[in-house]
Every structure is written in C-alpha cells, then in structure tokens.
Design goal:
- Strand 8, helix 8 and strand 9 form a beta-alpha-beta unit.
- The chain is globular, with a radius of gyration of 27 Å.
- It is an alpha/beta fold.
- Helix 15 packs across helix 16 and helix 16 crosses helix 17.
- It has 23 helices and 14 strands.
- The structure holds 4-O-methyl-alpha-D-glucopyranuronic acid (GCV).
- This is Xylan alpha-1,2-glucuronidase.
Length: about 725
C-alpha cells in the first residue's frame, strides 16, 4: 500500500511534467507510441523480428534506430530472429542470399550508391520485409524510411519502395567560429565544443548525425567561411577527427573551410600565391596530414576575395588558380573543393547583382574536375525573395553547387516563423531557359541539364546550442526541408511540410491541414511585410535585424539599403534593364526580354528590375504607392491569421512547444507592424502620398524608427565596449 501511495505521488508530481516536457530536442525523430490499435497491430504483424546481415557500425546504427523506434511505437522489443513471418531483413546487397538478390535484381540496377530498396517479399512461405542497398549507408537511409512510413501511419504490409538521392553532395555549412559564436546564428552558441574536444563527445553529436542521416544529408562543413586558419593546425585536426568518427557510421563526411592565407598564418611561408611551388606543396602536405587522420575527409569550402577574406586576387591570380591549387591537393584522396562565387568588389561600381557572373562565367570549363562552384540562390544575398542567380545554367562545363541559407539572417532571425523550403522550391523550379523551356535551376543543380559528373547543394545551418537545436520550433522544418530537397530537388514544399508536421507534432488532419497552410503562406507573409514587390536588402545594418531603409552611411555603397531601393521623389526601385545596370542581360531570353518592361515583369520582381514612379499604374489599376502600402498591410494580416490558426491548435501540441510558438508569433506580429510602419514612414517622404485608408497610420514618426538601436542583436560577434 505504501508502495502504491509512493508511485501515486510520483505520478502526480511528475506526470504533468512528463507530458509537458517537450523541448523539441528529438526533432522529427519523435517516436511516439502508435495509439491506433488496429494500425499498431498491423505493424506488429508485419514486423515480428529483425535480422541484420553483415557487420558494420552503419548497420549497427540502422538496427539501433529501428529497435528504438519499435520500442517507442509499440512498447515492446523487436527481437533478433532468423526466419519467420514478419521478419525484417537489413542487408547490403552483397550479403543477400542468391534467391533474395534475384528478387530485387532489376531494382538494384535502378538505384545509385546511396539509394535503397524496401520490398515486402515471400521467403519460404513467409512474408518478410527486406531493406537492401548497394552500400551500408543505403541500408541506413532505407531504415529511416521504414520508420518514416510508420510515423506517417502508412501501410507497410506491401512495400515496394525504391529511392535514391538525386544530388551527390548534400551538405550543411556551419558558419561557426572557433570561439563558439555563430555568424548569423540565432539558436545559441555553436554545438561544436572545440575546447573540450577531442575528449568530450557530447550525445548531441550523435543525435546531430542521426537527424542529418535521417534526411539524407551526407556532409557538414564545421567552420565559418570567414575562416580561421587555426582549424588546419594539428591541435584542431585532432578535434575534427573526433567529430568525423562520430559522424562516419551515419554517412556524414566532414569538411573544413580553408583560409586562403593559411600558409602564412599557420605555416611559415611568406606568400599564399597559388602558383608558388612552396605554397602548392604546403597545401598538399596539409591535405596529406588531414587525410592521414580522417581518411574520408570531404575537402574544403573556400570564401576567397570576398568581404575582406584573402584569396588568389591578392597575388594577381584568378579564382581558377586558387581553386585548382586546392583541388590538386585533395584530389589524390578523392576530396573536393567547394569554391564560393559570393564575390563583389568594393572598388567596382558595377551593380553588385552582376559581379559574380561577370567574374566567374568566363572561367567556365577551366576548373578541375573535383571543384564545385558554390552559388547563392540569388544574385544579392539570401533575401526574402530574389530572382534566381543568373550564373545557374550559364556555366554548363562547371558543376554549380546551390547555396541556400537555412538560418534566417534576413528573415526575422529565429523569432519569425518562415518556412524556407517554400523559398527553396521557388528557386529550384525557376526556368533558366538556357537550353530552351524547362531548363530549371533544379536540373542545373542535379547535373541533368549539362550532364555534370559532380553535383552538390549546401544549406547554411540554423543549428546551435538551443535545447531544440534551432531556437524557433518551426526552424526545424527548414533544416528538415533542406535535407529533403537536397535528396530530391523536385519535391513539393507542401508535401515536405506535411511530413514534417506529422513526424514532429501530430498526425491529426485537423492539425496537419491548417498548419501546413500556415507554413506555406509564411514565406509570402515575410516578403510582404519586409520587402514587397521586389524590394531587397533594406534591413538595418550589420546585424540585419529590423528595417533600415534609411541607412546610407556605410563605407561600401552596396552595404547601404539606399543603394538597393533608390527611392527618391521620382520613384523607387533598381533599374536593372538596359537603361540601368543591365543586369537583365545576364539572363537568357525570354526572361531578359519579358522582364525588360515593367508591364511584363512579374510583380514579385518589379522593383528588383525597375525604377518606377510612385503613381505607376499597377495591374489592379492602383498606384505603385498604394500597392506598396497595402502589401505591407497584407503581410501584417497574414501574420494575424497565423496567430489565429496556431491558437486553435492547442489541443494537438504539448504545452511547451505550443506556448513557445504562440509567444514567438506575437513577436513576429509586433515586428511585422514595425516593418510596415517604419518602411511606409520612410518611403512616404519621397512619394508624398497619403497612406491608404485600409492601412493603419504608423504608430510613431520616422525619427523614432531611425533611432532604434540593437547593439546586442544576435548573429554577429558581440562587442562588449
Ligand atoms: C559568412 C553575408 C552575411 C555574412 C556572410 C556572407 C557570406 O554578407 O552578412 O555574415 O559571411 O554573407 O555569405 O559569406
């Protein structure tokens, strides 16, 4: 009796905590008990025992993942077995007995080295489920897929799934510094605890690898592109090795950023000239040293001659010289170089949007085979909306790697709910027309447009030391969606949102449908309340938090918002047609032709390509000023709708995550109004027109908005003075 009382007390004290304590740490790998009895029974019938053929840390990870999921789904253990109805077999194709191999022979021909097959088969009169692949990592991907099928409550009794990734290098870029600050990071400090590595292996490292493997991410660049050459020293290579060992069973290769001046800084050379023999040797030796410790090291990511980073131009050499020198160093070890095209010069008066194209396109075909040129999705810098980068499609003989930003540098940090796969999808679906119709950006990236042998995609991570990894609980969906699109760039962002919601929160239709809708609309909402109608880069300076269209005092012209919106009494927008910077000429027809007139330019890109008078007549017959103002207001109303939708979801979400999202949405609502009011107050002084009646008057005057300062906004290295 005493004992019962004790347990009752425990229950009362801790049970509420147990159901409420949902930090979000488990991401989309929440293996909730399957409460639908008939569904649960059907899964139990299909999976009665497990047999893993072969032996490797990756196969062990596969078994563990399935066993853990099984435990949680059904509250019982999945036992090892050798045969019987309901047996689950995990095997690399090489380990399969001949009869089973012949069952999947034709499927095997249709997968690549990371693909997998899941088949329900008959074996000696028994029904079994087989997960097989050409590599163990394929088996792991297949195991996560089977788990996903159950998380989504799909039937698994008759499976015939074949899947392979369409892009080879699916990589996260961490802009993490060695002091654990994260450039443009809004989820705490870096998860890499450099000080305590290599000895301390945090459980987070394993869970990071599990989460990434579960969506097919197969590479991670551990360090900031604004690089520190210390990472290439023996002391740090040892730490990197420890992480690589944790990630290896999960198929995740480790990459580092290479600071171009490293031979000077961490070596004892007096030059970093890429054509200098000693410099070349220094990098070869460095590569050998790294590969001796980390045999599957992926290679280097380089930001060179960009925003103050050193590079080959310092020695009057080209990007080709720099990239090829590093490529030669890693080639004997099958390494690659990801060379960024994010360049714009402080001395070049040319439109910033044109500079990367001008600098790189003439080099097409000159890079070594193991070089990928990494290009941001748009020609400026991860704005809420940009047209696709004109380099896509125009370097057919050079593999171009997509760079998306998952962290929300220009999209309200980790306090705004913005589902980024919608943005990624928009870019991937854009038609470059370089080889006629249907030459989409996705086809450039997966190599199918020009038959590129090497393919890649990168996402700047939004991960940090926050308990839930990403700060905003919905930030996880952008990480998830990046992985899914990296695997298959033709997926719909809506399907991804649904999957993520079901795996992360609940399968209830009454939850999934409205919240999918909320997520899908969230991207357009942020465009409307920050940068409607093609406006861009009007965020406040440095930290990029909040509006700052008035900023005009920074040393480099293209760092100032006024450079981008060009508002004056005459009108607003950046003329990128022939009468302006002619950036449009970098696009193929029919884009160049169609966008040359404002009348045929999609309104979403209007002020990106045109400078137009305030009274310019828009498609709906209203003036440009009117539509600018009402679009800002629509953005605010969209957030109000998001708030309402979420507030109706309380019964489907645990208390902790529900309240966190609800509170963050209030911040988003407040800030959307701030954006609207600040921008309209500023632009109104040029338009001289009244704010339409349907739009509330700004709460404060312009001077107030201009006076706001945020010296400790996250995402930039704090300065304590
Ligand atoms: C890592 C923008 C960001 C920088 C970032 C840079 C880049 O300019 O503001 O923080 O630096 O892009 O992508 O290299």
């Amino acid at each position: 009796m005493k004992q019962i009382k004790f347990f009752l007390l425990l229950f009362i004290c801790y049970f509420p905590l147990a159901i409420n304590a949902q930090t979000g740490y488990d991401l989309w790998l929440q293996y909730e008990e399957i409460s639908d009895a008939s569904l649960s029974q059907s899964y139990l019938n299909s999976l009665t025992g497990i047999k893993v053929m072969g032996n490797s840390p990756t196969l062990e990870a596969s078994r563990n993942e399935i066993s853990n999921a099984y435990d949680s789904f059904f509250n019982q253990e999945l036992k090892n077995a050798n045969s019987g109805d309901g047996l689950l077999i995990l095997a690399n194709i090489d380990q399969l007995p001949a009869n089973m191999r012949s069952d999947v022979k034709s499927d095997i021909e249709n997968i690549n080295s990371e693909g997998y097959i899941i088949r329900s088969l008959e074996q000696n009169g028994n029904k079994v489920t087989l997960i097989t692949a050409k590599t163990d990592i394929g088996v792991l991907y297949g195991s996560f897929r089977l788990i996903k099928e159950m998380q989504l409550h799909n039937d698994i009794s008759n499976l015939a799934i074949i899947d392979s990734p369409k892009i080879q290098k699916r990589v996260l870029n961490h802009w993490d510094n060695l002091d654990r600050t994260v450039e443009r990071g809004y989820a705490g400090f870096s998860i890499w605890d450099w000080h305590l590595l290599p000895e301390l292996i945090k459980p987070e490292y394993v869970d990071y690898a599990r989460a990434n493997a579960s969506i097919g991410i197969n590479g991670t660049v551990l360090t900031n592109v604004n690089a520190n050459s210390l990472i290439l020293t023996e002391q740090y290579i040892e730490k990197v090795k420890a992480l690589a060992e944790v990630f290896r069973p999960y198929g995740i290769q480790v990459y580092l950023t290479a600071r171009f001046s490293a031979p000077l800084e961490s070596g004892d050379l007096d030059t970093a000239d890429p054509l200098n023999t000693e410099v070349k040797q220094w990098w070869k030796d460095k590569a050998d040293e790294i590969y001796a410790e980390i045999p599957d090291f992926g290679g280097f990511l380089v930001k060179a001659n960009s925003e103050g980073q050193p590079g080959p131009n310092n020695y009057d050499r080209t990007h080709v010289d720099g990239a090829n020198m590093l490529a030669e160093a890693v080639a004997p070890h099958n390494g690659i170089v990801m060379w960024r095209a994010f360049v714009y010069s402080e001395d070049d008066p040319e439109d910033r949007a044109k500079q990367a194209y001008s600098e790189f396109v003439p080099f097409d075909g000159q890079f070594k085979d193991n070089v990928l040129v990494q290009v941001k999705n748009g020609p400026i810098d991860f704005q809420p909306r940009e047209p696709f980068h004109p380099m896509f499609g125009t370097m057919p003989n050079t593999p171009l790697m997509m760079e998306f930003q998952i962290t929300q540098e220009y999209l309200g940090f980790a306090s705004h709910l913005v589902y980024l796969p919608k943005l990624f999808e928009e870019t991937l679906e854009e038609d470059t027309y370089v080889n006629g119709e249907n030459s989409t950006v996705a086809k450039v990236i997966d190599g199918s447009l020009s038959n590129n042998k090497l393919t890649g995609i990168a996402g700047v991570a939004n991960i940090g030391s926050a308990k839930n990894w990403t700060g905003h609980p919905f930030g996880q969906s952008s990480w998830y969606g990046f992985g899914r699109l990296a695997w298959d760039p033709y997926m719909s962002s809506e399907e991804i949102a649904e999957e993520w919601l079901k795996r992360t929160f609940s399968n209830e239709e009454a939850f999934v449908d409205p919240v999918t809708d909320l997520m899908i609309k969230s991207r357009e909402a942020v465009v409307k309340y920050m940068t409607p109608l093609g406006l861009h880069h009007i965020m406040d300076t440095g930290h990029h938090y909040g509006p700052g269209p008035w900023v005009s005092s920074l040393s480099r012209p293209e760092w100032n918002p006024v450079y981008y919106h060009k508002a004056d009494e005459e009108g607003i927008g950046f003329d990128r047609t022939q009468s302006g910077s002619d950036a449009l000429s970098q696009y193929a027809d029919p884009i160049a032709e169609k966008y040359s007139s404002p009348k045929t330019t999609p309104e979403k890109y209007l002020l990106w390509f045109h400078h137009l008078p305030w009274d310019y007549e828009m498609d709906n017959g209203e003036t440009l000023w009117h539509n600018l103002a009402t679009t800002y207001q629509e953005g605010v109303e969209d957030v109000e709708e998001m708030v309402d939708t979420w507030n109706n979801m309380e019964e489907y979400v645990d208390k902790e995550r529900f309240e966190k999202v609800a509170m963050l949405l209030q911040i988003q609502l407040k800030e959307s109004k701030w954006w609207r009011d600040a921008c309209l107050s500023y632009f109104q002084q040029f338009s001289g027109m009244e704010i339409p009646e349907s739009v509330p008057q700004p709460e404060h005057d312009l001077e107030y908005y201009k006076s706001l300062e945020f010296p400790f906004a996250p995402g930039i290295r704090p300065s304590w003075e």
